[in-house]
User: What shape does this take?
Amino acid sequence: MEGSASKIDQGPDPDPSWSPLYCAGAVSAGLAVVLYVAALVIFVITTAPPAVGGAAILEYVNAHRAIYIIRQLLWLAPRLLLMVVVLTLAVSLYPLGKGAAMIAGVIAISSWAVSFAWPTTGEGSLAMVVLSDRYAVTTPDAERAIFVAGAEVLLALNDTQVVIGVLQTLGILLLSALMLRGEFPTGLAWLGVATGGIGIISEALRPLLGWAYVVYGLLLFGWLIWVAAALWRAGRRH
Assistant: This one.
C-alpha cells in the first residue's frame, strides 16, 4: 500500500525508453504557460485591437504591426506545445486503458492540430496583417472595400462558436478522467476533470461569457503547471 501511494503521489512510472518524451512533455507544458502568460501581459499593457469595424482593425494593425504579430504568435505557439503535452499524457495513460487512452489522445491531439487551420486565434489573425498591408497601399475606397470586407469576416470568426475549442477541452476531460485510475496524483486528475468540464461550457458559451472566460484560463494554467511537474519527475526517474 505504501509503495502504491508513493507511485500515485509521484506520477507515472514509464518505460525508460519513454523518458525523453516525458521530459519533452513537461517542458512543453511549462513553456505553454509562459507563452500564455506573456500573451496576457501584452494584452493588458498594450492597446487592444478594435473588436468591430474592418477599416478600424486594419488601420490599427498598420499602426501597431510588430506588437500585433507578436500577440498572434503568442496565442498560436502554445497550440503546438500542447500537442506534445497531450500526446505524452496519452502515452503515459496507455497501460491504464488502451482503448480509452487512444480515443482521448486522438481527440486531444487532433483538436489542437486542427486549430492551426482555423484562420483566427480568438484575439486576432495573422491574415489580418496581410490585409492591412494591402489596405495601406491601396488608394481608392472602392478597391479598399474588399480588404475591409475580409477583415470583417476575420472579426466575425474570432467570435464564432467553434467545435475546435470544445474538442480541446473534451480531450483534457477524457485524459484527466483516465488519470483517476492511478499513476498520476489524484488531485491533478480531479483538477483536470474540473478544467475540462468547465472548459467545455466556457468554449461553448465563449461569446457570452466575457471576462468570466478567465476562470477556465486560470484552471488550465494550474493544470498545465502540475502536469509539467508530474511529467518531469517521471521523466527524470530513469
Notes: The chain has one domain: 13-235.
